[in-house]
């Protein structure tokens, strides 16, 4: 029953993407972005997105090498042992039920959402240093959210296949809603691959024109904070602090929910339930 309940939850969650219809503004935005990038020299465009991809790859690798991440891995294993004393490493977690793995993942999600909320609030205070590191911190924090969820479901994120897959999940989760159904379908196609399991067959290119909407939203958030940082209430710029905290929290909630549903689906598929219950 547990697997069927999770499968039903995934189906209900997917409807927000399958039933989504872009509005006129979104269509105009897509047309404007496409026209803008068509006028850019292809060499410069390729270089720009290549550097952006490299930044994400290096950020992923950096997070994996931190003691903070190693401590988090040990915490996940410790929680896993509460349910099964035989668990000694991350890969052993797959013996647990989807409910228990989801519980472990949600513990990590709650912690990262809190960090995201706090970081956004600090950025809202208007300090130049905090403005400068806001975007790198947000990307790193949300990459880490995907990694922690993947670890919670028993997948080692330092494996090349898992690294590429988690980066793909992060990319799909940060796309505009109107583009996420296609990205989801491509992810599911990848994990259903029977020809070369654990060899990532998709493209290693992550970012493109369509992905830039999220960074632009972060820019608009920063502009809004700058406009209202002098609106002080009881000594604090409450409006800008609130905007920074809420925007960052919403992004992390969207990324973590997408990643959780993906790794739940993958678990059900590997256990033989995904094909029967999830479409």
TrEMBL record:
Tell me what this protein is called: EcsC family protein
Q: Which organism is it from?
A: Thalassobacillus devorans
Which keywords has UniProt assigned to this entry?
Membrane, Transmembrane, Transmembrane helix
TM stretches of this protein: 114-133, 232-251
Extract the InterPro entries matched here: EcsC
Database matches in Pfam families: EcsC
**Statement: the UniProt record of this protein carries the keyword Signal:** no
